Automatic annotation (TrEMBL):
<keyword id="KW-0804">Transcription</keyword>
<dbReference type="InterPro" id="IPR000847">
    <property type="entry name" value="LysR_HTH_N"/>
</dbReference>
<dbReference type="Pfam" id="PF03466">
    <property type="entry name" value="LysR_substrate"/>
</dbReference>
<dbReference type="Pfam" id="PF00126">
    <property type="entry name" value="HTH_1"/>
</dbReference>
<dbReference type="InterPro" id="IPR005119">
    <property type="entry name" value="LysR_subst-bd"/>
</dbReference>
<dbReference type="InterPro" id="IPR036388">
    <property type="entry name" value="WH-like_DNA-bd_sf"/>
</dbReference>
<keyword id="KW-0238">DNA-binding</keyword>
<dbReference type="InterPro" id="IPR036390">
    <property type="entry name" value="WH_DNA-bd_sf"/>
</dbReference>
<feature type="domain" description="HTH lysR-type">
    <location>
        <begin position="4"/>
        <end position="61"/>
    </location>
</feature>
<dbReference type="GO" id="GO:0003700">
    <property type="term" value="F:DNA-binding transcription factor activity"/>
</dbReference>
<comment type="similarity">
    <text>Belongs to the LysR transcriptional regulatory family.</text>
</comment>
<keyword id="KW-0805">Transcription regulation</keyword>
<dbReference type="GO" id="GO:0000976">
    <property type="term" value="F:transcription cis-regulatory region binding"/>
</dbReference>
<protein>
    <submittedName>
        <fullName>LysR family transcriptional regulator</fullName>
    </submittedName>
</protein>
Length: 295
């Protein structure tokens, strides 16, 4: 017989979602002492500590966060089953939480989520984060998938599953009429340049290209955000080193022109996931769609 009391687990789940015992007690219409007692019984029965107190706030321990991720899936599935038995249909829309590196191309993000747009039975949410926070929230099961242009390796604590989805060519882009040749020459030295930030893999590759050609660009602006690179390129007379996907609308409309595709320089787009006991099927479908699209 299982020692797990699902009534106690439900109380824990509500408190974990709110992070506040008082608010959870009010929503559940029980006293704080009764709610605290139920959670203490769960901790005692399972032999773990689920919460730490930080002032008035309850913070999940590492095992508490794992327990919460299980509880989320258990009670979501229970709600779906109840609705299916009573009404013949799921209670809520299926949901997927997508994290994205804050500095990567929004055009690529849009193409990734496009299969969801016409599916009214699926709710999706997008969360822009730095790389470290992306991985932390993914490991804590606060996100179902993370999109990044930085490769992620595994380690003993978090075995990341990192899938290369696409490689986008990087080009020299600028306004039409600059008279630049489609082959690299020192005519490009007469131009002002907008470049990715020095920490960018694209910038490192471009610096290598410049060293090979003994070329020093006249840099007037740098940015680590693809949306900002797009705006600077569009609204200035400088030329930029930028993935074509970032400015695809401007290239199609003729507002910007591709002068030269840089050889062997790409922006890579990765999907990062972690192993889950209850995999989200939407994530699997999205990955298959993305791999077919960018094959």
């Amino acid at each position: 017989m299982s020692r797990l009391n699902y009534h106690h687990l439900a109380y824990f789940w509500h408190v974990a979602k709110l992070g506040n015992l008082t608010k959870a007690a009010e929503q559940l219409h029980v006293s704080q002492s009764a709610l605290s007692s139920q959670i203490s019984q769960l901790e005692h029965t399972m032999g773990v500590q689920l919460f730490l107190r930080q002032g008035r706030k309850l913070v999940l321990t590492e095992i508490g966060q794992t327990t919460f991720s299980y509880a989320e899936e258990i009670f979501r599935k229970g709600s779906e089953l109840e609705s299916l038995l009573q009404h013949g249909e799921p209670a809520e829309k299926r949901a997927v939480r997508i994290g994205m590196l804050a500095t990567m191309s929004r055009n690529f993000i849009e193409s990734f989520v496009e299969p969801l747009i016409q599916q009214p039975n699926i709710k999706y949410s997008l969360h822009a984060r730095g790389q470290a926070r992306l991985l932390t929230e993914l490991a804590n099961h606060q996100l179902d998938i993370a999109l990044s242009n930085i490769d992620v390796g595994g380690n003993d604590n978090n075995l990341w599953h990192c899938q290369l989805l696409a490689r986008q060519p990087v080009a020299i882009i600028g306004h039409p009429g600059l008279g630049l040749a489609p082959a690299f020459s020192h005519d490009y030295a007469q131009q002002n340049w907008i470049l990715p930030d020095e920490d960018s893999p694209i910038r490192s590759a471009f610096d290598g290209f410049c060293a090979l050609h003994q070329f020093k660009p006249r840099i007037v602006a740098e940015a680590d955000d693809m949306a900002m690179l797009r705006l600077l390129t569009r609204d200035s007379n400088a030329i930029a080193v930028i993935p074509e996907v970032v400015v695809k609308d401007e290239l199609q409309s003729g507002k910007l022109k591709r002068y030269l595709v840089l050889p062997n320089i790409y922006e890579n787009f990765y999907a990062v996931t972690v192993q889950r006991h209850f995999p989200n099927q939407i994530v699997g479908d999205l990955l298959l769609d993305a791999l077919k699209t960018h094959r």
